[in-house]
Design a protein that fits this description.
Distance between the termini: 34 Å
Number of domains: 1
Strand content: 15-25%
Radius of gyration: 17 Å
CATH architecture: Alpha-Beta Complex
CATH superfamily: Ribosomal protein L13
Strand order of the largest sheet: 5-2-1-6
Largest sheet: 4 strands, parallel
Shape: globular
Number of strands: 6
Length: 143
């Protein structure tokens, strides 16, 4: 019996759409990360990009539990001495709600070159309109 290994030339990519309205941030991010990596397909191969494109709409309408809006802090560094900046989740949601989902999904991907390439297949929009209607995305079931 031979083991099947996916080849980049034989991979079929689909487009999925996810409505983030009233979805929990972490649960949404895990499902999206699995779809980007291709773990929901029978021909998943860890070292080949078998994943699909994912379009997330209504990113500004996600929900979190507890007091994460005030207590969860995002850090970044400018590269200069003393340049550590921080923002709460509430500030991030007001400024760039797309970045909150992108960072959550990025944290659930492996830390390597393949995952950085897979993350480019993630398209996030704050509102209900998106620019990928021509690809005819199917709805990705999250439950």
């Amino acid at each position: 019996m031979k083991t099947y290994v996916a080849k980049p030339s034989t991979i079929e990519r689909k487009w999925y759409i996810v409505d983030a309205r009233d979805q929990r941030l972490g649960r949404l991010a895990t499902r999206v990360a699995d779809a980007l990596r291709g773990k929901n397909k029978p021909d998943y191969t860890p070292n080949i990009d078998t994943g699909d494109f994912v379009v997330v709409v209504n990113a500004e309408r996600i929900s979190v539990t507890g007091r994460k809006l005030e207590n969860k802090i995002y850090y970044r560094h400018t590269g200069y001495p003393g340049g550590l900046k921080q923002r709460t989740l509430a500030e991030m949601m007001n400024r760039r709600p797309e970045e909150v989902i992108r960072l959550a999904v990025k944290g659930m991907m492996p830390k390597n070159r393949l995952a950085r390439a897979q993350l480019k297949k993630l398209k996030i929009f704050a509102g209900p309109e998106h620019a990928h209607a021509a690809q005819k995305p199917e709805e990705l079931r999250l439950g």
